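2024-03-11 09:14:02 INFO worker-7 job=invfold-0412 stage=load source=structure_tokens
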């Protein structure tokens, strides 16, 4: 009888131990599941207010399990009850900071939007006035001064607006450093919303379009073109970097893809407009001297047209007097090419890639050949000077490329 009672007692104790062990296990799993749910809700939070709600849930969660702290400290090893909540609170604090930064960024974007709208309004008025003055064929001194002042103001405004748009792009991408694939749904929606509120695509399109119009209505200097070419390459580089990434997040509708394609086309139009204006201005230098050559639109064509013109002059030199040949050569080489093209336009042609050092070497070698045909006694000097110019260009280009690599590194 006593043995039966002992076995019954042992059975009950064993049963209660198994029950409590199972209960502790279930409670621990329940705790872990709650932690995962809260971690996920923190990651997917879409507003500061939602973070505050999660904060209340964490406190409620802590209260529900505080009585099981000793059991959880053992079951969660090497973590424990307090460290689990510390992790949740740290993650929540980081997420709150994200929304604080977004709030500050939104205010910054709104300020930039206001500034951009004001510059756009002013630029529209300046372009109208410049176009009206350009229609006047015989301008008096007062009108010329006014036109120059308007162009100077427009140039300053265009540069200022370009910088604002660049700042706008940089600001919007502060929280887009990681790959779009790593953004959760809430983060993607927040990013898309900021793009729309800032009129990002419109402002990029507008600044490119105004730069195109600026090239058309003003008479830029070679230095102006060099600056604008640098500005174009910097801006286009940024766009090429962010365009595909924007597409991964933002291109979920056909019209949005059209916007991206449209901006790519505008960049091409901007570059083409600058190239056309530069080649046209160089062509006018020769035309002003009565030198008639076919038109050209790139460095290869420019080199080919000039070399062909010189070849024709060399072939026809025997049929002309020495004085006539020397005058044609002087007009072409001394008064145009070496006086204006080389010192004024060659830097922007070479630095922007519109003309290669090989193109230049071909042209200047042909000029030296022409000079030799007219006056053989000066041939060696011409070759030496041409060689020094070409070598200087190559060295300068090498330094520029080195600076670019250092900057990119």
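2024-03-11 09:14:09 INFO worker-7 stage=emit residues=409
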């Amino acid at each position: 009888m006593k043995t039966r009672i002992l076995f019954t007692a042992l059975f009950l104790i064993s049963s209660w131990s198994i029950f409590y062990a199972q209960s502790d296990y279930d409670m621990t799993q329940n705790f872990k599941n709650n932690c995962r749910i809260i971690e996920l809700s923190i990651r997917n939070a879409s507003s500061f207010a939602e973070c505050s709600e999660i904060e209340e849930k964490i406190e409620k969660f802590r209260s529900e399990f505080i009585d099981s702290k000793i059991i959880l400290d053992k079951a969660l090893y090497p973590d424990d009850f307090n460290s689990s909540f510390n992790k949740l609170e740290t993650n929540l604090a980081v997420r709150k900071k994200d929304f604080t930064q977004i709030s500050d960024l939104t205010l910054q974007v709104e300020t930039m939007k206001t500034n951009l709208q004001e510059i756009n309004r002013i630029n529209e008025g300046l372009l109208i006035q410049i176009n009206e003055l350009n229609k006047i064929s015989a301008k008096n001194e007062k009108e010329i001064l006014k036109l120059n002042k308007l162009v100077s103001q427009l140039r300053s405004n265009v540069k200022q607006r370009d910088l604002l748009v660049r700042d706008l792009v940089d600001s919007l991408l502060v929280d887009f450093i990681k790959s779009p694939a790593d953004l959760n749904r809430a983060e993607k929606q927040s990013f898309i919303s900021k793009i729309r509120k800032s009129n990002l695509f419109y402002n990029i399109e507008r600044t490119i379009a105004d730069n195109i119009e600026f090239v058309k209505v003003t008479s830029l200097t070679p230095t102006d073109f060099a600056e604008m070419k640098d500005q174009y390459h910097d801006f286009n580089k940024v766009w090429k970097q962010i365009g595909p990434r924007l597409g991964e997040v933002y291109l979920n509708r056909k019209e949005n893809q059209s916007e991206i394609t449209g901006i790519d086309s505008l960049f091409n139009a901007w570059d083409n407009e600058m190239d056309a204006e530069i080649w046209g201005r160089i062509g006018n230098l020769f035309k002003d001297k009565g030198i008639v050559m076919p038109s050209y639109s790139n460095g290869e064509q420019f080199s080919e047209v000039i070399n062909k013109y010189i070849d024709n002059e060399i072939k026809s030199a025997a049929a002309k007097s020495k004085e006539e040949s020397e005058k044609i050569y002087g007009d072409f080489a001394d008064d145009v090419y070496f006086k204006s093209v080389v010192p004024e336009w060659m830097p922007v042609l070479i630095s922007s890639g519109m003309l290669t050092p090989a193109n230049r070497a071909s042209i200047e070698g042909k000029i030296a050949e022409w000079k030799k045909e007219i006056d053989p006694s000066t041939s060696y000097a011409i070759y030496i000077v041409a060689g020094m110019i070409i070598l200087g260009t190559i060295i300068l280009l090498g330094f520029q490329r080195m600076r670019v690599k250092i900057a990119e590194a």
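2024-03-11 09:14:09 INFO worker-7 stage=report msg="The longest helix spans residues 81-134."
2024-03-11 09:14:10 INFO worker-7 job finished
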